[in-house]
Amino acid sequence: MADDTPPPAAGAVTGAVTGADAALADALDRLRARLRDLALPLDAPGAAQARSDRRAALDQLDDYLLPRLRSAGAPLLVVVGGSTGAGKSTLVNSLLGERVSDPGVLRPTTRSPVLVHHPLDGGWFAGDRVLPGLARLAGDRAPGADPAAEPGAAAVRLVPSPALPRGLALLDAPDVDSVEEANRRLAAQLLAAADLWLFVTTAARYADAVPWDLLHTAAERHAQVALVVDRVDPGSEAAVEDLRRMLDANGLAAAPLFPVAEGVGPDGLLPEEAVGPVAAWLSDLGGDAAARRAVAVATRDGVVDDLARRGLALAQAADDQVVADTRLRDAVARAYAEAATQVAAATSDGAMLRGEVLARWQELVGTGDLLRSVERGVGRVRDAVVGFVRGRPAAQAPVEQAIAHGLAAVVLDAADAAAERTHAAWRGDPSGAGLLPDLGLSRSSATLRAEVDREIRAWQADVLALVGEQGAQRRGTARALSFGVNALGVSLMVLAFASTGGLTGVEVGIAGGTAVVAQKLLEAVFGDDAVRRLTGEARERLDARVRDVLAGEAARYTAQLDALVVSGGSALRGAATAVADAARAERAGRAGEAAGPAAGDAAGPAAGATAGATASLRGADRWRAAAGGAGPGRTPGGAGGTWPGAAGSTRGGGGVAGAGTHDAGGRDADADADAARDRPRGGFWRRLLGREDRG
């Protein structure tokens, strides 16, 4: 049945959808938005594959699915793909009877895959309806010209050809196993944009791993696939049969298989009898609008299902990113919380009151008159403090310096240990290892010492301010404080290192009584309750400043995670589920329409009665004549699938197209053709799409 849908103007997108189709398109648009926003920055297990799947899903939505859904009347795009040197370009040229694509291992390149269409179908492909990421090149480039000299980094070359039936387009894709990654990536992208794959291999390379990876993908999403086995010499039919067994075992049992004999003529084209079965098959498909629609819908349905599944898998990958992010943040938090605990322990168990701090404190308080004054009473303690400060007003500075040096060493050691622990934890985690190179995170930052010194000086100023504020509230100590605030401040610092709330009976002996002296001095001036409060507040301020310093160091790690903006997959999961629901609704509506009157034959009575005026590819008419066909519209593969010499193209033996007039079973081709004419024709595409053959 010829398709009378007029082609659109260049760049236009026609065929607006309504109802269930519109709901499906809207759901796919939302899925696309979620995929576009999906971030998978962490190298969690499976993340690399998830990123590749995300790119592939977006490409398929943009290059194929959304354009196909919105332009149901567009020509069927048949992408010819395969391995390097398999003969893809030679096959395309031979089907058209002219050289439109340059054969050879260097062709086609990433810059100019060739898309051949009927001249009246040019409007469908001139714009961005399909493959919007590829620029368009005019089809008048001379064969053999250097594609690298053409403008644009990646483009598709459009070639109109009246030899091709209207409603059908052939795209000669790059090699799927090209040595250039860009070629391989573009080949996969083009195959994903196909309504129908025409996969070309050879009798020597049909089992290669790379093509089978793509064929497995096709089977998973139920893409419509046909295979051509090129360069099949007489006697090598076993390779064709082995390939058929592989197809059956890998979910591609319905894929047509066309063996093509070895041999290229002086014009660089395969003989007509060699390409005849493929030419007749494609020509009859091009002449049957219902069959073309059935193929396009079957492939579209498979892609929709695959995208819904892929969306759910990517949502799980996004959740895995959140888990990895949380795990890395927990490693940082644990390491630096342990560092804070380490500093707190070292500054509260009396360890700070030994060494240089103890020596400087003893120089400050002495060992005779001042200690005896503490024992004799509060009043004399005040006088001793005043006299001491008056006599040696700068003596407390070495004590403050010793405290600052000792405290800085404790904080720096704890920060270095935390950095080492965090670095080791991240290095052992695949998600964190990728964030470590060249960041210098195995040690503390170069500016940490200056930051620690600044915070310690600020804390010492806080302590002096606390003493000054407390003294201002006690008028009786005004004279003493006017001369001894620094000495009392140092005493409070010392006491803060011995206890968070003042000494108890069991702490009397710490560091040779150092803290006892400090406490007695402070109690003599301020009283017991005030000393406990001042000591606790000084301790809290010290802990807060230490936490701030360590938090700044931890932020060097967490800032790497903050910049990645990791989010979960709940939104994507909802979008993928909505696509699956919309697809079910659309198919239910389609099934209801198919159940109506005269809808049962939509996919496929023989097209010969309606497609007689359709153009035929080179070799199609000759093949039909040899097979006893009635005309160019005859649908390939009758009820028995008994094409002379090409039984392998449906479900029969392994005969080689163009290699003789007998099939693999030795039967006479003309007898089979006569028998085939007498049988009802059920339609090849009905069987290909899983429908029971009426014959």
Protein described:
Helix 1 packs antiparallel against helix 2 (47-70) and helix 15 (448-472) crosses helix 16. This protein has an 8-stranded mixed beta sheet with strand order 3-4-2-5-1-6-7-8, sandwiched between helices. The chain has 22 helices and 8 strands. It has 695 residues and is of the alpha/beta class. The longest helix has 58 residues, at 289-346.
For the sheet with most strands, the description reads:
8 strands, mixed
**Mean pLDDT metric:** 76
Name the poorly predicted regions: 1-17, 141-152, 367-382, 384-396, 478-483, 500-512, 597-612, 630-695
- Count of DSSP H/I helices: 22
The share of residues in helices is 40-55%
Structural class: alpha/beta
Beta-strand portion reads: 5-15%
Which strands sit side by side, in order, in the main sheet? 3-4-2-5-1-6-7-8
How many distinct beta strands? 8
How far the N terminus sits from the C terminus, by CA atoms, comes to 20 Å
SSE succession: HHEHEHEEEHEHEHEHHHHHHHHHHHHHHH
The best one-word shape is: elongated
Radius of gyration: 42 Å
